[in-house]
Amino acid sequence: MADVITTPTIARSYAKEISQPPRKVALVASLIRGRTVADALVILTHTPKRAALPVVKAIESARANAINSLGLESKSLIIATISVTAGTRLKRFKPASRGRALPFKKKTANILVEVTGDLKPKKKPVAAPKATVKEEEK
Predict the structure, then answer these.
(1) Exposed e or buried b for every residue in 42-59, given b needs 16+ CB within 10 A?
(2) What is the DSSP string of 49-105?
(3) Alpha carbon 87 to chain centroid distance?
(4) pLDDT per residue rounded down to tens, the chain (138 residues)
(5) CA atoms within 13 A on the CB side of 137
(6) Distance between CA atoms of residues 87 and 76, nearest Å
C-alpha cells in the first residue's frame, strides 16, 4: 500500500513592499518568534515601534487564513515561522549644496508569517428526527 502523505496545516501570509528597512522590521519580528498568535498580538500592540503595525497586519491575515481556509482552531494557533527579507530598493536623490544631488536608496521589507495549529473537531451529522406515528384512540 502507498503511504498516505498528509500536508501540514500551515497558513501563510505575505506582506510585501513595507516601506521600512528590513533591519528595523526584523527587530520587531524577533520579539514574537515561536509564540502563540494571541500572545504575539498583545506584545505587538504594546510595542512602541512603527514596524509593529505591518507585522500585526501580517499575523492577523495569517490567522484569518488558518481559521477560514484550513479550519484550524483560533486558540491553538502558533507562529511557526516569521521572516523578514529585503524588498526592492527605490533609488532617490537628495539635494545638496552647490546644486548637487546625492543619491540614496529607500529600503523596503517583505514579511512572511506561517501559522500552524490544531484542526477543529468535525461535528457529527445530526440524525434525522424519527417520524412518530400518532395512534388514534378508538
Answers:
(1) eebeebeeebbebbbebb
(2) -TTHHHHHHHHHHHHHHIIIII-B-STT-EEEEEEEEE---EEEEEE-GGG-EEEEE
(3) 18
(4) 455 555 568 999 999 999 999 999 999 999 999 999 999 999 999 999 999 999 999 999 999 999 998 889 889 999 999 999 999 999 999 999 999 999 999 999 999 999 999 888 777 777 777 766 666 555
(5) 0
(6) 31
Indicate the length of the chain as a whole number.
138
76: how many CB neighbours lie within 10 A of its CB?
14
Can you list the domains of the chain with their CATH numbers?
10-116 (3.90.470.10)
**Strand 90-95 versus strand 109-116 pairing type:** unpaired
**What b/e readout covers 111-124, taking b as 16+ CB neighbours within 10 angstroms?**
bbbbbbbeeeeeee
**Three cell numbers, residue 109:** 521589507
Radius of gyration of the chain (CA): 25
* Cell 497558513, located at residue: 11
